[in-house]
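4.2 Preliminary Data

To establish feasibility before requesting continued support, the project team ran the inverse folding procedure on a target of 202 residues. The structure was first converted into the token representation described in Section 3, and no sequence information of any kind was made available to the design step. The complete token record follows.
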């Protein structure tokens, strides 16, 4: 077999497999000693036949990669909801879950999406959600953190408020790194009742 045909096949196999598979000597022996293989390649147009199949194979690989991108926004939102319910615990969670899902969480989603809107995939991939909501009557639900810098981008809190003649409310809000966490961005309130609510995480 001509050297340029062998080189072309090596390059084609390396390209199609992204260098993970390299042709062995057994391939060359099969082509050198089997006349039917030699005939299928042909003396002058061997690379034409081999390369004709290359675009289709490459297209299939690229299509599979494009169909399965990582959706970092969805991962953040799933983790945000999970951490919220961890904070609520088994005593508060069942009582406020419907209102949280219908009123508070959609606004939480909007705040997260606005915060990460300008980030590319590599920056999104470096974001994580803190995994320790505060217990007792602490406000912290979770923070979104940039792992590369160690800085918070946004902090979500819930404050227990006692209002005269009404009872207890949960005030959901967040603070943003854009204003150095000074402003209080309201997400909404959920009514508990007149009796003192349980502690978080209980």
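Position-by-position output of the design step:
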């Amino acid at each position: 077999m001509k050297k340029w045909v062998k080189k072309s096949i090596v390059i084609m196999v390396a390209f199609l497999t992204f260098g993970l598979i390299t042709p062995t000597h057994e391939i060359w022996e099969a082509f050198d000693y089997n006349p039917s293989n030699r005939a299928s390649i042909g003396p002058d147009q061997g690379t034409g036949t081999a390369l004709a199949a290359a675009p289709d194979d490459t297209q299939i690989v690229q299509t599979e990669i494009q169909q399965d991108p990582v959706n970092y926004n969805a991962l953040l939102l799933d983790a945000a909801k999970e951490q919220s319910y961890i904070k609520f615990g088994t005593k508060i969670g069942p009582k406020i879950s419907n209102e949280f899902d219908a009123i508070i969480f959609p606004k939480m989603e909007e705040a997260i999406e606005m915060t990460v809107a300008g980030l590319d995939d590599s920056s999104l991939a470096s974001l994580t959600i803190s995994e320790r909501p505060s217990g007792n009557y602490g406000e912290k639900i979770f923070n979104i953190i940039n792992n590369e810098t160690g800085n918070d981008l946004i902090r979500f809190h819930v404050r227990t408020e006692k209002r005269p003649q009404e009872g207890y409310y949960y005030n959901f809000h967040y603070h943003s790194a854009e204003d150095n966490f000074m402003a209080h961005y309201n997400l909404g309130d959920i009514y508990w009742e007149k009796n003192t609510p349980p502690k978080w995480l209980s």
